[in-house]
Every structure is written in C-alpha cells, then in structure tokens.
Amino acid sequence: MDRSHSNALTQKLSKFLDLTARESEALASLARRQLTLKTDQGLSEQGQANHTAFILTRGWAFSYILLQDGSRQIVDFRVSGDFLGLRGLLSPMSDLFIEPLTDIEVTEFQIDALLEMGTQVPRLMSAILAALARDQAITVEHLVSIGRRGALERMAHFFLELGSRLEEVGQGRKDNYACPLTQYHLADALGLSAIHVNRILRELREEGHLTFRKGEVFIEDHGQLSTLAGFDPGYLKPHPVF
Length: 242
What we know:
Blueprint: H1 3-13, H2 21-28, E1 33-37, E2 52-58, E3 61-66, E4 72-78, E5 83-84, E6 97-100, E7 104-110, H3 111-120, H4 122-148, H5 151-168, E8 172-173, E9 176-178, H6 183-190, H7 194-206, E10 210-213, E11 216-219, H8 222-229
Antiparallel strand pairs: 1-7, 2-5, 2-7, 3-4, 3-6, 8-9, 9-11, 10-11
Helix pairs in contact: 3-4, 5-7, 5-8, 6-7
C-alpha cells in the first residue's frame, strides 16, 4: 500500500483511536487497489449493490440522490481523508450516487474484508463506526439547515462547517480555503435556486461576512458569522472511542 494512502487512513482513524502497530498493519492490509478518477467517472450508483468502499486521498467528491424529474439533492461533499461508500456497512444497496467533483485519488477496499477485519481487530472497527457516526452528524446538520435555517444562515453555516473540516485535514484555514464548488452545487446542496444562491452570496459579501470568489472562500469575522449562523462546531469534533 502506497504510504500516502496508508497515511490518509491512519490520519482519519487516529482522531478516534490511538492506533497500535497491529491495528495500523490491519488497516494497511485492507487496500485492494488505488484509483485515479476524472470528474465524469462515478464511484457508485443509486440502487447498485454495495461491495466496496473508498478512502478519498486527493480531491473532492460528492454524493446525491437523483429524483424522478431529473433534479438532484446533494447530500454531502467529501474531502481528503473522508470515506466514500461506507454506508455499505449498514445497507446492501447504495441509496446514493457518488461522483468526483474534481479529479480524485482513492483507495478501494472490500466491505466484506472490512467486516472480517472487525472481528479480528474490534477496536479498529469501533473507530470506523465512530467516523461513520460523525458523517451522520454532518448529514443531520444539513437536514436542519434545509428544514429550519433561513437561506442566509444556511449558506453561512455551510461555509463555516466546510472551513472547519478542511482545516482539520490540512487543506486550508477555517476562515480561508480553496473551494471548487459552483453555484449550482450550492443550490442542489442547500435547497435553493442558483439565482437565490447568487443573491445570498452577494448579501454575505456586501455585509462584510464572507466572500466566495474565483474558487476561494474568505470569512471576514469567524465569530460574528458563527453567531449569525448559530454554528457550533461540536458535532464535528471526533470523540475517541477508547
């Protein structure tokens, strides 16, 4: 297993567990193959059998549900160090499409091999389940945003969360980071129209809160924006399992 790929897995799970040498070796042995994918190469399709999962080691990906009328609801965005398709531990069929948002590198591993490893190294499986629980907490916050937060607070909360996640994996600072999302991605993730997204971004910029321009996000006053959005990053903090 290439060292960069092994490090991505180790870095992810060491936030939940102080890995022993045996656990690190078991983690490294999971890798089936390493893949480089372009933006038009999907990883998973809605209704497809769940046999594999991935660790994202470079780039951005996103998952979404496609509705009968052809519209989509983006469920989440994945960044370096995140798992892709780990919901396969809980369901035999994929309920999401997963696609690269940029060119990406991933390490593939078999769900069956992961479950078998869990019987041999149970602490490691506990850490993986803790990572899955944190992903679920992020999804719950997105649901709260779409259901109860106003459009301005929703947008602000999203960018604050993204900054915290990227800072955690060394991909930027919480108040300044590169972001490849388009206004259409934001619209499909936040339940807004592209026109509404444009208007909200302009309002955030004109009020001196946040600027998103040319693929880069600048948050002028993190504390002030957090108050506006009601953003509490506690749900993003990994909770050690042992």
